């Protein structure tokens, strides 16, 4: 298609008086939009300890997380009723789990939610997570390959991880948990001059070169076990090297400008409602500005009573801690109590999905090109089968929604990962223990 005189490039900036401002999407950018590839995105959102699963004919049956019937005519129960307006954009998935996680400890499965790895005995080495695999293949077009968020932040500890993301070597990718830090990373202005920043990156590059050069001779002097540890260290150094290279590439491209009105950037674990909403707002802005296309958000880790998020339900008026709600779901009144917490979390998901759907992108909307996986690695506390899962979005990527699908125990969750990878443009026939695709979810 030939460019008309009034067509503007998609990445056009207004410049003057030393300032640069990214333009919003305009109709005159339509030529670019139709000829360039539309972004394909993946987002995973995790919550711990499972959901409320009372018996179907009990007094509390309306708080059963899963629908009562399979197929496209299912009805949402109270826990997920907030998704009704998004019915055509979501699928409810039951029966799935990671076979490698079925016999591990009940609080030991969050680490493998996106990796499907097997922890044998004292061997706690993880493998690459789905988001990081996709980011490695497709993340070169954005300022940030991926964005890892959580409530607790950092990496946590083995089997009690505070991040969903793991590198190609199975090392945890630290998650951000402070909204203001997330905002500054995505949209904050650089204080240093361009020349000073270039010099800083050049110095970092030089130091990394010296470290890697020295490592060659040092490694030869180490025993086998120490070599393995040293290789893990070198992997971290190489990841820093890659970040420096990306920073150099994007140095002269201004960060997007966004409206921060309504963002509670100082929210913390004392104001969980504002904190969770703000994190979802930041994820939305990251997608809207195409700052990254691969995101994870862990709404709480599996570290029992010590997790920051365990106090959120009581702070929000749900009576008990998250840990207590999860353990008491099968006691009198417990299914309703946990069900109301399930509903609160689902409302945050619905808010995020609705924002994506309400935001135009080319001939569709942001949700059309964004696959969102929401769920837990427990059905109930200490039960590592029948993960409660919602898959949303990706309508223009080949996903077919609007139903409740119940799978047998012979279908590993990794089959879903293979299905998503193929629709996102990473042709794959295998992910860990996968056995095929899920044609029930595709057009």
Would you give an account of this structure?
- This protein has 443 residues and is an alpha/beta fold.
- It has 3 domains: 1-36, no CATH class; 45-186 and 258-441, Alkaline Phosphatase, subunit A, CATH 3.40.720; 190-254.
- 31% of the residues lie in helices and 11% in strands.
- The protein has 10 helices and 13 strands.
- The chain has helices at 30-35, 130-138, 179-187, 194-219, 224-250, 272-288, 312-315, 322-327, 334-357, 414-424, and strands spanning 13-16, 19-22, 41-46, 90-94, 147-150, 156-157, 160-161, 294-298, 360-361, 364-365, 370-375, 389-393, 404-406.
- The protein has a 7-stranded mixed β-sheet, with helices on both faces.
- A hairpin with a 2-residue loop joins strand 1 (13-16) and strand 2 (19-22).
- Helix 4 (194-219) runs antiparallel to helix 5 (224-250).
- The longest helix has 27 residues, at 224-250.
- The two termini are 29 Å apart.
């Amino acid at each position: 298609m030939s460019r008309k005189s009034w067509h503007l490039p998609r990445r056009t900036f207004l410049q003057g008086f030393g300032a640069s401002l990214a333009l919003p999407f305009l109709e005159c950018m339509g030529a670019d939009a139709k000829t360039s590839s539309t972004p394909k995105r993946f987002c995973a959102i995790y919550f711990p300890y499972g959901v409320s699963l009372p018996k179907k004919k009990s007094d509390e049956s309306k708080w059963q997380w899963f629908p009562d019937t399979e197929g496209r005519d299912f009805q949402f129960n109270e826990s997920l009723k907030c998704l009704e307006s998004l019915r055509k954009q979501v699928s409810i998935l039951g029966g799935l789990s990671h076979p490698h996680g079925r016999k591990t400890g009940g609080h030991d499965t969050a680490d493998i939610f996106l990796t499907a790895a097997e922890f044998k005995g004292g061997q706690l080495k993880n493998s690459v997570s789905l988001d990081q695999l996709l980011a490695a293949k497709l993340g070169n077009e954005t300022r940030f390959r991926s964005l890892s968020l959580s409530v607790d932040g950092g990496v946590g500890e083995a089997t009690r991880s505070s991040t969903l993301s793991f590198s190609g070597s199975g090392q945890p990718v630290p998650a951000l948990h402070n909204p203001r830090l997330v905002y500054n990373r995505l949209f904050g202005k650089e204080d240093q001059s361009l020349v000073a920043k270039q010099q800083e990156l050049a110095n970092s590059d030089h130091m990394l070169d010296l470290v890697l050069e020295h490592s060659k001779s040092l490694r030869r002097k180490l025993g086998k076990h120490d070599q393995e540890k040293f290789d893990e260290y070198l992997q971290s150094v190489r990841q820093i090297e890659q970040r420096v290279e990306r920073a150099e590439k994007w140095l002269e491209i201004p960060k997007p400008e966004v409206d921060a009105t309504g963002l509670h950037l100082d929210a913390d674990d004392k104001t969980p409602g504002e904190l969770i909403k703000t994190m979802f707002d930041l994820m939305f802005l990251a997608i809207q500005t195409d700052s990254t296309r691969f995101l994870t958000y862990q709404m709480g880790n599996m570290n029992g009573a010590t997790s920051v998020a365990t106090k959120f339900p009581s702070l929000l008026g749900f009576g008990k801690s998250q840990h207590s709600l999860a353990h008491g779901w099968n006691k009198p009144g417990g299914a309703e109590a946990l069900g109301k917490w399930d509903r609160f979390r689902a409302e945050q998901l619905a808010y995020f999905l609705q924002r994506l759907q309400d935001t135009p992108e080319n001939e569709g909307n942001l949700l059309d090109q964004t696959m969102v996986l929401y769920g837990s690695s427990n059905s109930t506390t200490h039960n590592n089968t029948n993960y409660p899962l919602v898959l949303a979005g990706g309508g223009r990527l080949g996903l077919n929604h609007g139903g409740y699908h119940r799978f047998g125990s012979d279908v590993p969750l990794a089959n879903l990962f293979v299905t998503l990878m193929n629709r996102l443009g990473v042709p794959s026939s295998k992910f860990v223990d996968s056995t095929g695709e899920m044609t029930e979810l595709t057009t």
